[in-house]
Design brief:
- The complex is a heterodimer of chains A (440) and B (271).
- Chain A contains 19 helices and three strands.
- Chain A has 440 residues and is mainly α.
- Chain A has a three-stranded antiparallel β-sheet with strand order 2-1-3.
- Chain B is 39% helix and 25% strand.
- Chain B contains eleven helices and ten strands.
- A six-stranded mixed β-sheet of chain B has the order 6-7-8-3-9-10, sandwiched between helices. In chain B, strands 2-1-4-5 form a four-stranded antiparallel β-sheet, with helices on one face.
- The chains are: A mainly alpha (440), B alpha/beta (271).
- At the A-B interface, helix 15 and helix 16 of A face helix 3, helix 4 and helix 7 of B.
Chain lengths: 440, 271
């Protein structure tokens, strides 16, 4: 008996230096390698993110400035209303020859011989054709201005604007260049007299689509996007939350609900262009809704956002501790009271986070909008979601197809605006989560 | 109430113990979770103004039986209850009985303190609010003070009624849960291992509280601690493998049980 115990002991007690090699060094090395892979992966991601932001910002920051030429415009009655009929016929002011006012002002400012047609043409080319509407609006807003001379800041033409920002390659032969040497010389004089200067580009935020870059803006597209976001919020949030509450709390757990759950998860991964096709066939062809309207865009984006919201809401509902439900039920609350008094309020941060992320996703979505005709050249602000409109990402898509240098910078500028919207929305989601998360 | 009358009440209660009418009666209660049977024809009576302790090893069905008494098992889809449970003459599984009303009469305190993540005040007023027991602010104030006093928590929290209930200590939270249950003026209070998540000092306070509550309420308590059963209860029921092994006066149960299995469990031979 004693022999046995001693032999058992000797079998189990080993001298420290003879410990089995279990590869501790290798284990640590593997861990270090794994950490290095992780750091490398993150650095790669950060590098590309930085590259993206750098490209966008370096191309786009100039879009927030616009060159303007301030000229003393003489609102000559002889040109605007030679026969003095504006009292009887206000429409006369709409059709007056405003470009002539600009020409006269330029000829005077640059001291050009008015009979030298070619030179005058070069000079008037420097000012945006939108000057016509700009002057018209001034006169219509205040007809008393006729007969006086007022300093007006006219938008410079897109190429002149680019040249002023140093974006035109001057080494190219003059014949192949959009901006001629004479125009460059005038620009120099105008800059020296202070007539030509860069100012903040408010037009970028207030104008609609235009084939002239200096008169193109994202205002109309942003309004279209706003309409769509409101429609998505008004439809997707209640429908999504109701669906999730039913599925999570009331629905019996059987094959059918399992099937529904699998399908919802799959729908979240369906390519968005498919939703566009769905919207085209259901809302436009079948239901006869207007083409290229924010209403249809909003409905399509609602369908696309629903799975995201449902998945997030169900996860949030599931995360509410069962003890809270027991507590409410144990006090005699009905299932409905339990859900609406306790479970849903506690799940709300998760629901809102999911909704905001879904909205941000919808805000940046382009593909389904292409199919329902929202790639439209919309100049005027849509008065309602039923009117033709376009959306921010679609506007970016359309500008990206334009060739002028001024459109390139506007494309990047619009991307920056869109990214800022998205960042603000995601930040809102994070703050909401932080604010309400630690409640039990 | 002075010391004398308190002692007198105590004595009266103890005398009443064996003659008190049955508050709840379980007759041939069986519970199935899907195919699995968790309780086998349990016949157990709960006397009014008595603390009845349910003891037994884990998985013996004592919590299942407790949850039958206010139909909390209804919330589990696969659960099926047969037999009859009577509360004051009325079968609580009768279709005409509204479960909301039943749970207002039979309150429950859970194993883990589970106050709502709301203020202490709102925690207590939630039950009265949904049952329409009070309308004015003054009435609610009165219910809050009364319930918290009954739960022995009033002096500790009266200055911070509008702070979150989750900010209290574990023992205070559990007493808040008791106050919450008391606020709807139930007749029976079910307690499912109310002290298992508490430290000994908090446990002592809750036990003392159970002792006081007995004067006004019928209490059924599930506990894993034999000492606790001996300290707080007048009647004890021992469960084993889904069967009710023995039901007896607590004093007798812990000194001279009728059943060998009870003897073994109490002596720590299994469980």
């Amino acid at each position: 008996m004693t022999d046995m115990t001693s032999s058992v002991q000797s079998a189990y007690v080993r001298p420290a230096q003879a410990r089995r090699d279990i590869g501790i060094k290798r284990r640590y090395a593997a861990e270090r390698r794994f950490r290095a892979y992780g750091v490398a992966a993150i650095l790669t991601g950060l590098f590309f993110l930085f590259l993206l932001l750098w490209t966008v910002v370096s191309n786009g920051y100039t879009a927030f400035q616009q060159t303007a030429i301030t000229l003393p415009i003489e609102f000559s009655e002889k040109i605007i209303d030679p026969k003095n009929e504006r009292a009887d016929n206000p429409a006369k002011l709409m059709t007056a020859n405003y470009p002539l006012l600009v020409r006269d002002a330029l000829v005077k400012a640059l001291a050009i011989d008015p009979s030298n047609r070619a030179l005058v043409k070069q000079a008037t080319d420097m000012v945006s054709a939108s000057a016509r509407t700009q002057l018209r609006d001034i006169v219509i807003a205040n007809p008393a201005v006729i007969g006086t001379t007022v300093d007006v800041a006219l938008l410079a033409e897109g190429n002149i604007d680019s040249a002023n920002k140093g974006q035109i390659d001057l080494k190219v032969a003059e014949a192949n260049r959009k901006v001629k040497d004479q125009q460059l010389a005038w620009m120099k004089t105008l800059t020296e007299t202070g007539a030509m200067a860069k100012q903040f580009n408010t037009g970028l935020f207030t104008y609609g689509a235009s084939s002239r870059p200096e008169a193109a803006g994202i205002g109309v597209a942003a309004l279209g996007s706003l309409y769509m976001m409101l429609i998505v919020l008004a439809l997707a949030l209640p429908i999504g939350v109701c669906a999730s509450i039913y599925l999570e709390e009331f629905a019996p757990k059987n094959r059918l609900t399992d099937l529904i759950e699998v399908n919802i998860n799959n729908l979240a991964a369906v390519p968005s262009i498919v939703y566009g096709l769905l919207g085209l066939s259901v809302f436009i062809n079948f239901a006869g809704m207007p083409r290229s309207a924010a209403l249809v865009g909003g409905l399509v984006l609602t369908l696309m956002t629903l799975p995201t919201i449902i998945i997030a809401t169900r996860a949030a509902l599931k995360a509410v501790p069962p003890s809270i439900r027991s507590a409410a039920l144990g006090l005699g609350a009905s299932k409905m009271q339990t859900i609406f008094h306790h479970v849903l309020p506690l799940a709300m941060p998760g629901v809102l986070t999911g909704t905001i992320i879904g909205l941000a996703h919808a805000l940046g979505e382009t593909a389904p909008l292409l199919l329902i005709g929202m790639v439209a050249f919309v100049v005027d602000f849509p008065g309602s979601p039923m009117e033709p409109s376009t959306a921010l990402p679609v506007q970016i898509y359309m500008w990206a197809n334009e060739a002028e240098r001024a459109f390139v910078e506007r494309t990047s500028g619009a991307i920056m605006v869109l990214l800022i919207f998205l960042v603000v929305m995601n930040l809102g989601a994070i703050l909401l989560r932080r604010r309400f998360e630690r409640r039990w | 109430m002075n010391m004398m009358s308190e002692a007198a009440v105590e004595k009266a209660l103890d005398q009443k113990m064996n003659t008190a009418p049955y508050k709840m009666t379980g007759k041939d209660v069986s519970v199935y979770y899907g195919e699995k049977r968790a309780l086998f024809d349990v016949n157990l009576n709960v006397r009014e103004n008595t603390v009845t302790a349910l003891i037994g090893p884990s998985g013996c069905g004592k919590s299942t039986f407790l949850r039958c008494l206010n139909r909390m098992n209804d919330t589990i889809d696969s659960c099926r209850v047969t037999g009859k449970i009577v509360l004051d003459e009325g079968d609580i599984y009768d279709p005409s009985i509204d479960v909301v009303e039943l749970r207002a009469r039979v309150g429950m305190v859970f194993q883990k303190p589970n106050p709502f993540p709301k203020s202490i005040y709102e925690n207590v007023t939630y039950g009265p609010k949904i049952h329409g027991l009070a309308r004015t602010k003054a009435e609610f104030d009165q219910i809050v003070e009364h319930s918290l006093q009954k739960a022995g928590l009033w002096n500790e929290v009266k200055d911070r009624l509008h702070e979150s209930g989750t900010g209290l200590s574990g023992g205070q939270q559990q007493r808040l849960c008791i106050a919450r249950a008391v606020a709807v003026s139930p007749e029976v209070i079910l307690m499912d291992e109310p002290c298992s998540a508490l430290d000994p000092i908090a446990t002592a306070k809750v036990e003392e509280l159970i002792h006081e509550l007995r004067a006004n309420y019928t209490i059924v308590i599930v506990t894993h601690s034999m000492q606790q059963a001996a300290r707080v209860s007048q009647r004890t029921a021992m469960f084993h493998l889904g069967n009710l092994v023995e039901e007896n006066d607590t004093d007798k149960m812990f000194t001279n049980p009728d059943d060998q299995r009870t003897q073994d469990y109490i002596m720590g031979r299994f469980g």
